[in-house]
Records
---
Amino acid sequence: MERSLVLIKPDAMQRGLAGTIITHLESRGLKLVALKMLQLDEALAKRHYAIHKNKPFFDSLVNYITSAPIIAAVFEGKKAVEAIRETMGATDPAKAKAGTIRGDFGLDIEHNTVHGSDSIETAEEEIKLFFTKEEILGY
Ligand code: IDP
Ligand code: MG
């Protein structure tokens, strides 16, 4: 079964949206198979967002994602990667459809509430950054 990494970002944690976001994803039929709360250090933030290291927003993004605790989760399901991206909505909340997580709760293109892996390959790499095999549970 396909898996994807979800991060509930600092802006969502600070506004008490963690439960709402998890419920939203569970309601889509996605199964929660791993979960932890942590505050990213700079090294892990830079690894997670390595693909963006040459972007003008990279330093600001690392600053933001390390600014408060986050929740990291693995969701499993049919076409989980695509289903989560669809449920999250577009990167820029101003362009995200109503009813999507970012469309309803995102503040701006940086503080956009939630992260979801963008492909099956990326998901596998990202999950490994946050979870050991033993932390991913079957039920
Ligand atoms: P995604 O999260 O929808 O996959 P990416 O392009 O991979 O979007 O960007 C990663 C994260 O970087 C975004 O979720 C957002 O927090 C931040 N970001 C993306 N584009 C911008 C920008 O133009 N300005 C500031 N932050 C950005
Ligand atoms: Mg991305």
---
Amino acid sequence: MVDAIVVLNAGSSSIKFSLFFDRGGELELDMRGQVEGIYTTPHFIAKSREGTTVSEKSWSGATQLGHDGALDHLIWFLRTELADKRLVGVGHRVVHGGLDFTQPVRVDAGTVQSLEKLVPLAPLHQPHNLAPIRRLLDRAPDVPQIACFDTSFHRTNPELAQRFGLPEELHAAGVRRYGFHGLSYEYIASVMPQFDAQAAAGRTVVLHLGNGASMCAIEASRSITSTMGFTAIDGLLMGTRSGALDPGVILYLLNQRGLDARAIEKLIYNESGLLGVSGISSDMRMLLASEDARAKLAIDLYCYRIRRELGSLAAALGGLDAIVFTGGIGENSAAIRERVCHDAAWLGVELDQSANAAGSSCISAPGSRVSAWTIPTNEELMIARHTRRILERL
Ligand code: ADP
């Protein structure tokens, strides 16, 4: 009987799942899908690895399916799907592991309690990540569940890189730079030796450019610092998030504009970034296709922020051997990669334009001092690998 691992990634309005089979070698993706719009107009879809729809369901009218209802549907669907397989475990993406969770862990009720304490550090994500864990502990207590954290990969950051210029008491209370997108960076670090063994043993900056975006400085496969900090808003301009702001801007909004904390949160998380600057869209494809000067400004600022942060991360590394593009924009937009590489010419990046346009993995010219790569990320596979590894140890 084939072993199966389910990976869940629960957000505020959707639960995504992937189903992997373990036949001994690398885990094989069998299908993936999601229940989306779980508080508005719920819709479930599951697709095979090749992209064919395997199952689909809509709930009519405005149904409050919620996380529990969505998970119950997934359990029902997977039970049928896995009738002749053995479900060995469920891996979860959890945004925050704080200081203690430096590795993925098997969760029980006690672990959930510890992870709930981190909700104030990631109020927009952590509660949603924990909802399916709690439900599954209740509905299927015998199925091992493994939590994998977006912060863990960055726990190797030196103390100095984690420190804000704030009083000790706040630092001790956990107000420090954590870094996120760790599962994506860990995956890239794990495959990097196959692409460029020398750079993998040296200094690489990975650019994870999706709706959320960050960059990570990696030395010999270990994170040494990244552009995201205490929360997932720091650093680069993103789809709807502002990225780094002078903290004085927040004080101005509070004191002079009379915005309360909720309104500021909405502004900097949902109404800023590419969307806020362009006034058109958070979607890079739409901005690249637009003739509007505001779309151009948003793209210019996006690339300028990357240029500045790349210099900063290269300085933290003390040099640079490779850069890697990943995430929806990094993997798919030759135009953005071209601009970033041209901006990084001073660091020794020389682009191979035709390789970049053709979507090759290696996009740097043969003599380039710093190599440049496009490597699709695979956070789900990383979670499935962790889940298998931990289950083998049990
Ligand atoms: P998430 O962070 O939600 O997982 P993705 O990694 O899927 O998001 O990235 C979404 C972003 O990728 C969007 O801005 C989308 O416009 C962009 N994107 C996807 N395909 C392309 C493309 N061919 N050219 C430019 N941008 C693209």
